[in-house]
Amino acid sequence: MSAIRAYLKGLVEEAKSPATSHLPLEALLPSPQPRRRFENLEPLAQSIREKGVLQPLLVRPLGDGRYAIVAGERRYRAAKMAGLAEVPVRVLDLSEKEARLLALVENLQREDLNPYEETLGVLELLSEELGKTREEVVALLHRMHNERRGKATHNVMGNPEAKRVQEVFQALGRMTWESFVQNRLPLLGLPEDLRAALEEGTLPYTAALELKKVKNLEARARLLEEAKGGLSLRELRARVREVLVKEKAPPPWHKEVATRLARLDPESLPPEKRRAVEEKVRELLALLGGEE
């Protein structure tokens, strides 16, 4: 087992250990994490009222009587809703980087993390491991993907960074890095309406990627509602193809003429061409006037 896989495994095993104490909620501080939304907290709050907090929160001391929540913010929020004054915790002596890694790994193991949040979480984990920005990590992944497909000869795959990327994905066990590049990185470019639906859990990521192809806002909004209503991916793909064919079709000739006339600056034309255009326009206006 590589060093990074052993390290991540050690953090996760540490997180499974029993609680070491109880702390008041007012002493706990949430930390940034991949999860963006905390929905459906009331069922968890009701369970906590009946059974208490069954899994301890993971926290690390800040040195001033307060503790940063490393993992368990959803339980923390639900405990507040349930009216609890304190919760069971496991206090871990972690550095700030170790805490971020543990929070990322712990969250990425959860099944209720939506694909968009999961994508950001994986990128954040890679960013921590490689010491790179998210943009630099994305660029590295694309270079790896291009080389694997024979579209580049940079020999990125032989670099230590590429090996660490592969080790992280092996340690997480969620998907391969190739699948991540192909199916998850495109989620970063989703328009706001699709990203919101994905984060709300009302739209599968496969449907979001399909709808991303539709640039017409009205058509996309209509298809989005149909997808939320249970339209199958096969049916959605057929509808999207129909919309894309219409989007690529040239505009009717009369609309093209009207558009070009609206943009026309007669003063910029040579005198002879200007007189000819004006004559044709007068003829067209006379003809249209006769029809009325």
From TrEMBL:
Ranges of residues in domain ParB-like N-terminal: 21-108
Keywords: Coiled coil, Plasmid
Coiled coil segments of this chain: 207-234
Pfam families in the record: ParB_N
Entry keyword annotation includes Protein biosynthesis: no
Coiled coil keyword on record: yes
Top-level taxon in the UniProt lineage: Bacteria
InterPro entries, A to Z: Chromosome_partition/occlusion, ParB/RepB/Spo0J, ParB/Sulfiredoxin_sf, ParB_N
Protein family according to the UniProt entry: Belongs to the ParB family.
Name listed for the protein in its UniProt record: Chromosome (Plasmid) partitioning protein ParB
